[in-house]
Amino acid sequence: MTDIQHDRLLIIDFGSQVTQLIARRLRELNVFCEIHPYNAVDDAFLTAFAPKAVIFSGGPDSVTRPGSPRPPASVFDLGVPILGICYGQQVMMEMLGGKVEGGKITGGGGTAEFGRAFVAPNGTLPLLQGWFEEDKEQVWMSHGDHVSRIAPGFEVFGTSPNAPYAITADTARNFYAVQFHPEVHHTPNGARLYENFVRLAGFKGDWTMRAYRAEAVANIRAQVGDKQVICGLSGGVDSSVAAALIHEAIGDQLTCVFVDHGLLRKDEGREVVAMFRDHMNLKVIHADEVELFLGQLEGQSDPETKRKIIGGLFIDVFQKYANEIEGAEFLAQGTLYPDVIESVSFSGGPSVTIKSHHNVGGLPEKMGLRLVEPLRELFKDEVRALGRELGLPASFIGRHPFPGPGLAIRCPGEITREKLEILREADAVYIDQIRKHGLYDDIWQAFCAILPVRTVGVMGDGRTYDFACALRAVTSVDGMTADYYPFSHEFLGETATRIINEVPGINRVTYDITSKPPGTIEWE
Predict the structure, then answer these.
(1) In 3D, which of 9, 10, 1, 19 has the Cα closest to residue 347?
(2) Contact 372, 333 (CB under 8 A)
(3) Is 47 exposed, middle or buried (0-12, 13-18, 19+ CB in 10 A)?
(4) What is the largest CA-CA distance in the chain?
(5) Which of 78, 96, 169, 428 has the highest CB neighbour number within 10 Å of its CB?
(6) This prediction's pTM
(7) Which domains does the chain possess?
(8) Strands, E, within 52-110: which ranges?
(9) Which residues are catalytic?
(10) Is 477:524 a contact under the CB 8 Å cutoff?
């Protein structure tokens, strides 16, 4: 549990695939919330957490099944507003004296409902302020079971063709329940419902990056004291923001180690070190280990073998330099809140210990260091907001994700220095094109891959036999799924011309239009 001192909203997770979206909606309203699996929430937890309001998430189970997920009954005695969503509505009804039944779509009457639906109003309710300005609201349903009898004290405030109890409330106790999912974008006005709920609960909306920055600095100082901290600095958003925040807290007690493995993009190592060492006055060890990494990778073409070599060498190199830092007792990592949530899924049980997502590959176990994870309460977009609050350049805050193995997984087949140099130049031209056309911030990730084939071409009056490259650009929210970016043919033609003209060694350019799934974002 966090040490954050704001009013807290507790989200009890019953296994919905979109529970994180609830938290993101609330964070956008400057409300601090945490997600905890139902089987990790008991009476002692509720007392310690002291939520100002509670939300029950959806879930895949059926409340009609013996042993199905339940919150502790004491949650209803806290005297705070509660909002149940989908399965959360059904569990409220079942526990408070209503009835839930399984069902099929048989021509209406309150049965299963999946996809877009429309809810009509039935009376007025403060929770629904700003809703039903027309005669119905579009929502997203995803339920097989249905409420067949509402619990005593509840009234109906909204209905849909297959959910006569789509919106219910016990206004005396501030209990609210909806059968649909207001957190997904298929419920266009869903954000307003959450806004109304937190207003009813009395939240002040004081969860801001300025406040978080001050609290995090105080927490880091209290945790670290006068000890030394080391940080693996990759130049990515997470490690950059973590380093800047920790440096603000403890100054020269922080030493960053930037491992240059020869698989970085053009000028990346110089830019990262220059920003943090020269402009932000951080202590940065620039570990130039290009020869070591490329030497070990020579002749290797299997993607998993390449990953293992890079990961193993990184640990060894980082540890070598870290051992030179006298008095180091803490390792800083850019662990984010989604990592924490995924570590304790509702199916893992309350006894599961939260594992750390080691951005530097298992170093704490090998080195005996304690972890400092100042971003573990934040989502990715909040990390970017904190970076802006800390004054990091927009060029770093808005960077596309870059994989730990670097260009190795954008170079299918055997890695050679020649191919890496060609790849760096082609990638630099491609990203320059995207920036020049004002598209960089519209794209989740964009890069060039050099293909393990040579193709025949004609340049001037001569025949060429050079490499082909593939351009990749995708849109995504979290990287779990992705669609290819719909560049215009004019853009692609212009970019291909520039790469072929400016990058010796490439005579053919292709564009990858594979979505994820079935493909992956990276090529290896």
Answers:
(1) 19
(2) yes
(3) exposed
(4) 87
(5) 169
(6) 0.72
(7) 8-201 (3.40.50.880), 209-397 (3.40.50.620), 414-511 (3.30.300.10)
(8) 53-56, 82-85, 99-101
(9) 86, 181, 183
(10) no
Contacts (Cβ under 8 Å, ≥6 apart) of 298: 415, 416
Burial class (CB within 10 angstroms; exposed 0-12, middle 13-18, buried 19+) of 464 = middle
Going 332 to 333 to 334 to 339, the CA torsion angle's sign is negative
CA 250 – CA 224 distance, rounded (Å): 8
Judge residue 514's burial from the number of C-beta atoms within 10 Å of its C-beta, 0-12 exposed, 13-18 middle, 19 or more buried.
middle
Alpha helices in 29-119 (DSSP H): 43-49, 87-95
Which of 92 and 109 is assigned the larger pLDDT?
A: 92
pLDDT digits (tens, 9 = 90+) for 37-46: 999 899 999 9
CB crowding 193-220: b at 16 or more within 10 Å, else e = bbbbbbebbebeeebebebbbebbbebb
Look at residue 357 in the predicted model and tell me its pLDDT. Answer: 35
Q: Which residue has the higher pLDDT, 364 or 295?
A: 295
Tokens of 165: 């109890």
> What are the structure tokens assigned to 277, written together?
């060492």
For tokens 């290896």, what's the residue?
524
What is the C-alpha to C-alpha distance for residues 133 and 63, in angstroms, rounded to an integer?
34
β-bridge mates for residue 54, sequence order: 10, 82
% of the chain surpassing 70 pLDDT:
91
Given pLDDT bands bounded at 50, 70 and 90, which one contains residue 3? Answer: low
- What does the block give as tokens for 145? 């079971």
Residues in contact with 403: Cβ distance below 8 Å, sequence separation at least 6, in sequence order = 409, 522
**Closest CA relative to residue 11, chosen from 82, 79, 62, 78:** 82
Rounded Cα gap, residues 267 and 432, in angstroms: 13
| Least confident segment among 50-64, 376-390, 420-434 | 376-390
CA distance linking residue 356 with residue 108, whole number of Å: 48
- Reported as type and span, the H/E element at residue 179 is none
